[in-house]
Design a protein that fits this description.
Length: 127
C-alpha cells in the first residue's frame, strides 16, 4: 500500500481518491457484493491498481479508455472471459445489446439497463 501513497508536500502521506475508490471496489468484491467491477482511472494509476489486484490474487483486464484513462475490469474469471469476447473496442462503440450485457454483468439496475437499451435502439432507428 505504501507505493499507492503520495507525499502532499508537507511531509504527510495521503492516498489518492482514485486508489481509495479501487480499495472500496476490492472490498466489495472480496465480500461478494459484486462479481465483476469496472474501475476507470487516469493512466498514471494503472500500474498501482494492477499491482494491488495481483497482490490480492484478483483476475483483471486493463484496456485503454481514451487518451488519458484506463478501464480495469476485475472479478470472476467467467465474467472476464466474456468481457474478452465482446468488449474489444471503446465502450461508446458497443452495440445496444453489448452495452446491455455489460451493464447487467456489472450489476447495474436492470430496469435502468432496459430503458438505456430502448433509448439506444431508438437512437439507431431500430425500435
Amino acid at each position: 500500500m505504501l507505493q499507492m501513497m503520495m507525499d502532499n508536500g508537507v511531509g504527510q502521506m495521503v492516498v489518492p481518491s482514485e486508489i481509495k475508490v479501487l480499495m472500496n471496489h476490492i472490498y466489495e468484491y472480496k465480500k461478494g457484493v459484486r462479481r465483476m467491477i469496472l474501475f476507470t482511472c487516469p493512466r498514471r494509476f494503472e500500474q498501482q491498481a494492477c499491482i494491488r489486484l495481483k497482490s490480492q490474487s484478483i483476475d483483471y483486464i486493463a484496456q485503454p479508455a481514451g487518451r488519458d484513462n484506463v478501464n480495469i475490469y476485475f472479478g470472476r474469471r467467467e465474467c472476464l472471459d466474456a468481457i474478452r469476447l465482446f468488449v474489444t473496442r471503446p465502450l461508446h462503440e458497443l452495440t445496444p445489446e453489448e452495452d446491455f450485457i455489460l451493464g447487467a454483468m456489472l450489476g447495474y439496475d436492470i430496469c435502468v439497463q432496459c430503458e438505456r437499451y430502448c433509448e439506444r435502439k431508438n437512437k439507431y432507428g431500430k425500435c
